[in-house]
UniProtKB/TrEMBL annotation:
Protein name, entry field: Endoglucanase
Family indicated by similarity: Belongs to the glycosyl hydrolase 9 (cellulase E) family.
Pfam families attached to this UniProt entry: Glyco_hydro_9 (PF00759)
Occurrences of domain Glycoside hydrolase family (ranges): 28-164
Coiled coil region boundaries: none
EC category name: hydrolase
Gene3D superfamilies the record matches: 1.50.10.10
Length: 168
C-alpha cells in the first residue's frame, strides 16, 4: 500500500509542476501525448480524480485545486474553447457522434454527455471535413462524423460524475 500511495503522490506532484507553464493553467493538456481517443476521460478527468485521491489522503488543498483545473479545461478553458459537456457552455458541442442525438430531429444533442475531445491522431480524417488544425490540443471538430474526437461513451461520463462528486 505504501508503494501505491508514493506512486500516486509522485504522479500528482508531477502534474502539478505543469501548472506553472501551462497555457490554460491545467494539469492536463501540456503534452501532445495527452490528446488521444477519448482524451477527456481518463487523461483529463481521470487525472482530476487522482488529484482528489491525493487530496483525501493529505488534505493539502493544492491537490483539490489541481483537480479543479481539469474541470476548468473540460468546461472550456482549452485551446478549442469548447465546453465538452453537451448542453452546457458558451461554445457548446452540438454535433456529437451519437445516433440518438443525430436522429431525433432536435437541434440540441442529448444534454449531459461527455465528448471525447481533441485527438492528435485524427484517425477519422478521411471521413470528415478537414480538421482546422494539426496541433494536438486543437485536433477537435464538432462534427457528427468525427468519431475520434466527438464520440461519446458512458464510461467517459463516469469519470465526470465521479470527479464532480469528489469536488462536491
Amino acid at each position: 500500500m505504501k508503494e501505491i500511495k508514493e506512486s500516486l503522490k509522485k504522479k500528482c506532484d508531477e502534474d502539478i509542476q505543469e501548472l506553472a507553464t501551462s497555457s490554460f493553467h491545467s494539469i492536463f493538456g501540456n503534452s501532445a501525448q495527452d490528446f488521444h481517443w477519448g482524451s477527456n476521460s481518463e487523461s483529463c478527468l481521470g487525472r482530476g480524480i487522482a488529484q482528489m485521491y491525493e487530496y483525501a489522503l493529505t488534505k493539502d488543498s493544492k491537490y483539490r485545486q489541481a483537480a479543479l483545473s481539469t474541470l476548468d479545461y473540460f468546461f472550456g478553458r482549452n485551446a478549442t474553447g469548447y465546453c465538452y459537456l453537451t448542453g452546457f457552455g458558451t461554445q457548446r458541442v452540438m454535433n456529437i457522434h451519437h445516433r440518438i442525438s443525430a436522429a431525433d430531429n432536435i437541434k440540441e444533442p442529448v444534454p449531459g454527455l461527455v465528448a471525447g475531445g481533441a485527438n492528435k491522431g485524427q484517425e477519422d480524417a478521411e471521413f470528415v471535413p478537414a480538421y482546422a488544425s494539426n496541433i494536438p490540443d486543437e485536433s477537435y471538430q464538432d462534427n457528427v462524423g468525427s468519431y475520434v474526437s466527438n464520440e461519446i461513451a458512458i464510461n467517459w461520463n463516469a469519470y465526470l460524475v465521479s470527479l464532480l462528486g469528489w469536488i462536491n
